[in-house]
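Exercise (ungraded).
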Amino acid sequence: MKNQLLHTVEGLKDIHPIDTSKKNVIERNILNVINSYGYEQVQTPTFEYFDIYHYKRGTADGKNLYKFFNREGDILALRPDVTPSVARYMATFYSHTRGPKRFCYLGNVFYNNENYQGKLREYTQAGVECIGIENAEADAEVIALAINSLLASGLTKFKVDIGHVAYFNGLVNEAGLDNDTQETLRMLIDDKNYIALEEMLEEHEIKKNIKKAFIDLPKLFGDASILEKAKTYTNNKISIDAIDRIEEVYTILKDYNVSKYVSFDFGMVSKLQYYTGTIFKGYTYDVGDSIVDGGRYDNLLGTYSYDAPATGFAIKIDELLNALTRQKIDIEVLTVNTLLVYNKGHRSTAIKLAESLRRQGMTVELGINGLSTKESIEYGKAKNIGGMMMIKDSDTIILKNLSTDEESTTLISDLVEGGL
Amino acid sequence: MKNQLLHTVEGLKDIHPIDTSKKNVIERNILNVINSYGYEQVQTPTFEYFDIYHYKRGTADGKNLYKFFNREGDILALRPDVTPSVARYMATFYSHTRGPKRFCYLGNVFYNNENYQGKLREYTQAGVECIGIENAEADAEVIALAINSLLASGLTKFKVDIGHVAYFNGLVNEAGLDNDTQETLRMLIDDKNYIALEEMLEEHEIKKNIKKAFIDLPKLFGDASILEKAKTYTNNKISIDAIDRIEEVYTILKDYNVSKYVSFDFGMVSKLQYYTGTIFKGYTYDVGDSIVDGGRYDNLLGTYSYDAPATGFAIKIDELLNALTRQKIDIEVLTVNTLLVYNKGHRSTAIKLAESLRRQGMTVELGINGLSTKESIEYGKAKNIGGMMMIKDSDTIILKNLSTDEESTTLISDLVEGGL
C-alpha cells in the first residue's frame, strides 16, 4: 500500500523551485508578447457548471472531467480547457458591445483521463482568444502570435502545422457519408490507422478520387507544396475554399516573417469538434505531444447566445518547459545572492544590513538558524547561494565567495547608503 | 430558473482585464519581496488526497472542502490552504537534508463554505513557509516579510495583530478545563460573544483571576502596553513564556523598522488548530476579513513523518486588491498603446510596422476587423487605447491621439530602425 500522505494524486506533480522559477519566466515572456498584440488577460474560475462543457458544444468528453458537487447540489467540473469559460465570460459581459475582443489567460486545466504514458492530469495553459473577426488576417495573427510566443520562451526548433477542418468536411460531404461513418473515419485518420482505414473505405461506395484522398490524408502533410497536392484530389468548393484560406493565411504569415516555422497537415482532423476553420498544432523535439493547439471556432459563442466568430490557441507551459529543459535551452532565473550570518550580539546590525541590501535589489537570506560557520557554508553551497557575509564587528563584514572560497573584508558603511 | 450557461458557479467569479492586470502587478511585487528574503517558489497540485486534510492535523474542516473522485476511486479535495501541501512536499523531497528551508507559493484555494456575506469560494493566496527554525528571529522574519509584502502591494494603512496560542492554552491548563469546554470557550472568545462567555464561565469552578482573564480576552488587544496587561492575569509559565516570546519578536521587528504596523491581540484564538506558537493576522480598512493570516505550526510536519518546526503566512490577494481599489490606491498597469489601421492594399506594410513596434516594446493592436475609420476611433476610445496609426501610403502614417483627437503625419521610416 502506498503512503498517500507523501504522494501527489495520480497524474499531478509538485514543481520544484528551479522549475517554478523557469515556468514563471516563460509565462511572463509569453504574456508580454501576447499583451503586445493587444490581448487583455482575464481570469475565469477553476471550475464551472458541468453544463458549460455540454457534449453538443464539442468542448470536452464528459468522461474525462473531474466532476463534483457544491453545497447547492450543482454538478460542477474542473475546467479541461479555458476557451469555453472565456466564451461564457464574453457572452455574459460583452454581448452588447461592438468590435472585436482580444482576450488571453494563464491558468491550469484538468483531465481525469486514463493515465497512460504518464500524461499529466493538471497542467498550465497560456492562451488567447480573438473574438469577432472572421478572416485570414485573424487566423494569421493568432498563428504568428503562437510562433512568437514560443520564440519568446527560448524555443527555436519547432514547427506549427496548419490544417483546415473544411477540407475533410468537404470530402465527407462529397462522399455522402453519415455521421457515424464520419466519426469512425475521423478517428482512423487521426490515429493514422491505415489498414483499418482502407478496410472501412472498401465497405462504402465512394468516388475513386475521394477514396484516394481519405487514404492519403494521414500522409498529406509537409511544406507549402502540399497545398497544390491537396487540390488534386477534389473540385468540391468547400475543400477548395479551405485550401484557398490556408494559402492566404500563409501569405500573411510571410509578412509576419514566421513562415519558416510553418508546415501544413490536412490529416489533422481535430477531435475537439468545436473547431470550424483553420486549425493548427505546434510540435518540437523531445516531447511526444503538441505544445500548442489552436484554431477557429465560429459556432461556440453562439451556444452561449452570443453569435460571433473566434479563433485562438493554448500553449502547454509544462510541456514547453520540458522541451526547453531537454533541449538544454538556458532560462535565466533569479537565485539567492547572499547568505548573511551573524552572532547574536550583532542581530540588530544584521537585520538592518539585510533590509538595506534587499531594498537595493539583492536577495539576502538571514542565517538565523543557529548553524555554525562551517555548517552555514555547507548549507549555502547546497542551495547554490553565491556569497556569504559574516558580520565581524559593528563596522565590518567578511565577504566569502561560495564558489571560489575567496574571502575579503569590507566596511558595512560601504554597502549601505546613509548608514544603517 | 437561472441560466447556468451565463453564470459562474456560486461564490466564484470572473476577473476582468483591468483587475487581472492589477492582480498580476501585486503578485509580482509581493513575490519579488518574498524572493529577496531567500524564499524559493514551489508549485503543488490544485487538489490532494482528502487524507492530507485529515481532521487530526487541524488543517481544515472536511465539510468545507470540495471533494470528488478520480478514475482510481481515490477521495480527493481541492486545497483549502497550501500549507499542508508544502508540508507534504517538504517531507517527500527534503526529509534527508539539513538546515532550514524557505518556500513560497502563489495559487488558488477553495472553500465549499456556506456562502453568507457573498464570501468568495475561490481566491488566490501568496504565502511563505519558513521551515526548520524555532526561534523569535524566524517569527519576526515572517511577520516583517508579511508587512513588507503588503507595503509592496501599495497598501499603507494596515495593522498586523500578533498573538500567541500558548497564552490561552496556559490559562486553559491552569483552569483545568476539558477539551470540549476548551473548544466552546475558544469559539465564544473568537466570536466575541461576551454574554454566552460569562454564562459559560459561571458554570465552571475556575480561579477568579483566570475567569477574569477569559472574560477580558476578547478585549485584550492594542499597542505594546497590552503585553504588560496580559501579565497581570496569571503567573503560569506557559502563558508568561508566550508573552516573553511576543516581546522578543517585537524587539526584532523594531530592527526591521516595521513596528509601527504592529499591534497585539491575545483574544486571537485561531480555529486553525495546527498553529502552535506566535500567530498573526493583518487587517486594513474597507474589507471585513483579514488580508493576511499566519503563525507558527511546529507539529504539522511531524504528521508527515518529518518532524520540524515551521512558521509562515498567506496573503489573500483578491481581498488585498479589493482593499487597494476601495482605498483608491493606484496600481500602474500596461495598456494598449496603439491601434494600427490600414486599407487592404497596405496589409504587408501594416503587419511589418506592427511587428517592428512590438519588438521596440510597444503594444500594438491591428485593425483587421473591417471597421470604418470612425468605428475604429470609437472602438479605440472605448478600449482606452492611447493612439491610433492610420497608414496613408507606403511611406507615411497619420498619428491620432485618441485623448485629444490631435493628428500629425510622420514617416514610417522614422518609426522603425533600418526600414521594414
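Further reading is listed at the end of the chapter. For now, observe: The mean pLDDT of chain B is 92. Chain B has 13 helices and 17 strands.
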